[in-house]
Amino acid sequence: DRAIEVQQAALKKSDDMGYTEFSVQLRGKLEQYQAEKAKQGSSEGFTINGRVIDIPDQKITLTHSGESSGKTPEALETQIVGGKFRLSGVIDRPPAIYELGLETRGMPIRNWELALDNSAMTMVLRVKEKTAQFTMLEQSLSGSPANDLFVKFKDDLDRRFNEPLEQLFGRQLALKPKAGEQAGAEQKAEIERLGMEIQALLDKQTVHLQKMAASEKDNLNALFALRALAHAHQYPYSDSQEVEALFSALAPAISKSGLAQSIKPQMLRMAKVTERAQAVAKGAVFKDFVQHDPEGNPVQASELLRKGGYLLVDFWASWCVPCRAEHPYLVSAYRRYQDRGFELLGVSLDTNRKNWLAAIKEDGLLWKQVSDLHGAKNAVAVLYGVKAIPMNFLIDGSGKIVATNLKGQQLEDILAEGIGGTKAP
Predict the structure, then answer these.
(1) How far apart are CA 208 and CA 215, in angstroms?
(2) Can you tell me the distance from the alpha carbon of 157 to that of 51, in angstroms, rounded to the nearest whole number?
(3) What is the SS3 assignment for 373?
(4) Distance CA 312, CA 405 (A)
(5) Is 313 helix (H, G, I), strand (E, B) or coil?
(6) CA atoms within 13 Å, Cβ hemisphere of 79
(7) Which of 158, 222, 289, 316 has a CA 20 to 30 Å removed from the CA of 35?
């Protein structure tokens, strides 16, 4: 813009005249101004002039992710005509995260998330991959400093963590025995080993994002890292003051953005949930609850407790791959110890009843299952401060929590020692 042109002209004149010290000051101010422009964008709003390749004319939409505060438009749509389209709007305190979509089903967009500022942008949307079932699309957007940073951030995260995690989860799921079958010793050992590898990589990802949020507070990468932590499988903060400090350390233009103002209360709420989860820990008395089974019958947890026995309350969901990878271990433990005082109660964080019931059948789950179908807002999950699944609590006959977050063979090892009998091979 005009201000940048004036500063660049002054810098050139200073360089030509040999005013080295003055040039250093001007250059610093110019770089600072350009960085602020990348964060704030123009007050005149944004435009996206786009074209599509080998895609039929139809409606194209930008839907706001909901992570904003202010007057940023929630959704925009327009018609592709002759392979071209134009979208425009004004983002209040950018950047804002939008999701790109097409009217035609079966045409997903691989990189569908955009971080938009108030810039003049161009987009090309083309076919990435085509099968009998779907046509995968890919977009390229230029002209937005915020989105350029966002793309680099996501590509790096995919390469380091998301793609390796997807491969590990796939290998683990492939080992899961079919309904009615039991996993062998070698199969169980490999599932457990993969689970440990997955957990180690998730831990590494969390540390990476925490470091980025703390060290890159002067650019948008810190904000993108905080957003990723807010959506992470493992939320690392239990101290509200620590969350406040992270946002206070951000550069003013970033901390005042609509995205930051939306993420911050979300992270503060999650910190309280994490704090609550830590209170429901080993040695505490379990919290009783009632929830309904698939037939609508109320199930009270305390009625499943047996003197001298154990109750495992297991939080899971049909869409959770690592949860379902644990099911062969739970099935094995239940078959072995159900007649010796061991009970199991599954609490599903599903929202889709059909998917929930199908997963129960597919995985051969023989014990009681309950859900209110409210997803992550399941009342029992909130009561127990569950922020990530799989998660479980092992409760003894007196109602005391004796172990949490058991994985693989750990449950049968405890039951063998506490109830008696031989361990599974």
Answers:
(1) 11
(2) 28
(3) coil
(4) 10
(5) strand
(6) 2
(7) 158
Paired tokens of 266: 């979300």
How far is residue 240 CA from its own chain's centroid?
20
Element (H, E) at 7: helix 2-16
Q: Parallel, antiparallel, or unpaired for β 96-102 and 59-64?
A: antiparallel
Round to whole Å and give the CA distance between 184 and 342.
22
Does the predicted TM-score (pTM) go above 0.85? Answer: no
Q: How far is CA 201 from CA 165, 208, 251, 269, 387, in A?
A: 7, 10, 30, 25, 18
Q: Which amino acid makes up residue 50? A: G
CB 234, CB 202: distance < 8 Å = yes
**CA gap 66, 64 in Å, rounded:** 5
Report, in angstroms and rounded to the nearest whole number, the Rg of the chain calculated over CA atoms.
Answer: 26
* Residue written as token pair 């003051």: 241
d(CA 124, CA 393): 50
- Which is nearest to 99 in space by CA: 118, 115, 86? 115
- Per-residue pLDDT at 241: 87
- Compute the distance between CA of residue 281 and CA of residue 391 in angstroms, rounded to an integer: 12
Per-residue tokens: 154 = 């996501």
136 phi/psi in degrees, rounded to 5:
-80, 130
Residue 356 and residue 294: Cα distance in Å, rounded? 9
Walk along the chain (425 residues) in steps of 10 and give the mean pLDDT of each run: 59 65 65 54 79 94 79 85 93 92 88 93 94 89 94 95 92 78 79 84 90 90 93 75 90 90 88 69 83 95 90 95 88 91 96 94 94 93 86 91 86 83 46
**Which of 45, 139, 131 shows the shortest CA–CA distance to 101?**
139
Which pLDDT belongs to residue 74? 82
The pair of structure tokens assigned to 55 is 């895609």
DSSP 81: B
Q: Match 């995919």 to its residue by tokens.
A: 158
**Which pair of structure tokens corresponds to residue 180?**
């009615």
Quick one: pLDDT at residue 190?
Answer: 87
Give the three-class secondary structure for 298: strand
DSSP 384: T
Rounded Cα–Cα distance for residues 64 and 41 (Å): 18
Q: Is 90 exposed, middle or buried (0-12, 13-18, 19+ CB in 10 A)?
A: middle
CB 110 within 8 A of CB 128: yes
